[in-house]
Amino acid sequence: MINIQHLHKSFGKLEVLKDVQLEILPGKVTAVLGPNGSGKTTLMKSILGMTLPDQGTIEVRGEPTRHAWNYRKHLSYVPQIAQFPSNLTVQELLQMIKEVRQEPANENPLIDRLSLQPFLDKKLGTLSGGTRQKVNLVLALMFDAPIVLMDEPTAGLDPVALLELKRLIQEMRKAGKCIVVTTHIMPLVEELADEIVFLLDGKVYFQGSLSELFSLTEKNTLEEAIAHFLTQRKDRTSVNA
Amino acid sequence: MWKIFKYSFFDLLRSRWTYFYFLFFMIVTAGLLHLSGQVAAAITSLLNIVVVLIPLISTLYGIVYFYNSSEFTELLLAQPVRRRSIFLGQYLGLFTSLAASFLLGILIPAIFLGHFEVRLWLDLLYLLGIGTLLTAIFTAIAFLIALRQTNRMKGFAVAILTWLFLAVLYDGLFIIFLLFFEDYPLEKFSLIATVLNPIDLSRTSLLLKLDMAALMGYTGAVFNKFFGTSMGMLISISALVLWVVGPLLSFLRVAARKDF
Fold first, then answer.
1. Any chain B CB within 8 A of the CB of A15?
2. Among B15, B72, B77, beta carbon nearest to A83
3. CA A55/CA A51 separation, integer angstroms
4. Distance in angstroms (rounded) separating the CA atoms of residues A152 and A150
5. What is the number of other CB atoms lying within 10 angstroms of the CB of residue B14?
6. How many whole angstroms separate alpha carbon A198 and alpha carbon A186?
7. Distance between CA atoms of residues B177 and B186, nearest Å
8. Contacts of A222 (CB under 8 A, 6+ apart)
9. Do A85 and B69 touch (CB under 8 A)?
10. Average pLDDT in chain A
């Protein structure tokens, strides 16, 4: 569903993505993991066409994304930081994105499930971080796009909303959607992810299922497996030094 | 593009700052009309406010608005829309709300307080037209600066220095140059130097229209001599329109290649 070949991206001297090759499949939850600055957000933004690759190709449902914009109708995106025009109300913002996308949207069940009803007529500038994140989720998930990209979707969510988010992700997987999530919350990954992509220093260090990860690293938990990769890298850099 | 314009405009229409800007012009215009007694004198005072203050406010508001909406812009960039539509929509939203505040802020007191002759109404409308062009120019310049400078502090500094240079320093340098080379023919130089600064250009254009030979200074006189009043006005207006198109196009070009 998403095919990435030899993707390179630098910001000035900083090489953020180095020859990334990935195939992301439908009907699965793919968790993109990695320490801060490993290139997770840049990878997502490259798929969305917000960051323009230096080299390499990205195809979404077989369509090359370079210089294209219409393919984004297949994508829903939950960005990391949600900041909206402060003087519009929640309802107006939802209406705006619906008008911009010109696609049928089904926001009411999501508003109910995330308990956003009392906030619909409130101005976005007055909302708390967690509520803004819920609005952020509704904005992305109210459309029936086959690919859903979520960058730290749990930020600021209360336990009830977090539970609802997990259910939503499971339902979307059941519906055959391709879901890509970046997160630092390991229990969430263990619970939901079918596929793990571990990014380190801009390279894909590992791609496979949780059980493959555990057997490769000979560890039993995700935290330990990741710590294993990180110590391996440390050893290697100290040997090189 | 129009949808993004519509919502940016609505958002700004509810902003306190839009009202401050509107009230500022309303109070100043009402005050000038009331105090000076003479409509022509009030228009001249407004001229000085318009050519200096509109560039400053449009630049600052443009920078603040662009930075404040950057995360929301990212959300829009993830939608199936052309980049050009997003940025043009936001630009038009800001331009329209600033221009509306300024136009209504002057027009409302003028309609109620000014007992104008037709000629003075035409002068006032010309002033409003130039003010609108200055709003369009400096909003585009501010957006261009904000897009190129991701560091907000640097962006602010560049914006304020740009305004300071065009509104204050440019004239000083210009006069020094004229004094230094007074033995040489300087008509062409001063024509070009005026066209290269939208603030000088709009001031000259307004003085030509208001027919104030005494206030015109050297460039105004040169403009008048070279082109005559109507041609001078036409050329200055066309140059101002180019000043809108230039920064706006380069803003859109930079936006098309930028990583967000």
1. no
2. B72
3. 12
4. 6
5. 16
6. 13
7. 10
8. A186, A189, A190, A196, A210, A213
9. yes
10. 90
pTM of the predicted protein model: 0.86
Ramachandran class of A28: left when φ > 0, alpha when ψ lies in -120 to 50, beta otherwise: beta
Query: What burial letters (b/e) apply to B52-83, b meaning 16+ CB within 10 Å?
Result: bbbbbbbbbbbbbbbeebbebbbbbbbbbbeb
Q: Name the nearest CA neighbour of B171 among B196, B139, B207, B145.
A: B196
Chain A residues touching B12 at Cβ < 8 A? 87
Helix B152-164 to helix B118-148 angle (10° resolution) is: 140
The answer to whether the CB of B8 falls within 8 A of the CB of A99 is no
Who among A52, A86, A96 is closest to B3 (CB)? A96
Q: Which of A52, A81, A88 sits opposite B11 (nearest CB)?
A: A88
What is the C-alpha to C-alpha distance for residues B22 and A220, in angstroms, rounded to an integer?
65
Helical (H) or strand (E) element with B106: helix B83-113
Prediction ipTM score: 0.85
- Amino acid at the residue B221: A
A68 touches chain B (CB under 8 A): no
Question: What's the full length of chain B, in residues?
Answer: 260
- Which of A118, A146, A99 lies closest to A2 in space, CA to CA? A146
Identify the CA nearest to B15 among candidates B101, B83, B128. Answer: B101
Q: Give B19-78 pLDDT, tens digit per residue.
A: 999 999 999 999 988 887 778 888 888 998 999 999 999 999 999 999 988 878 888 899
CA distance B17 to chain A (A): 12
Chain A hits for B15, Cβ within 8 Å: 87
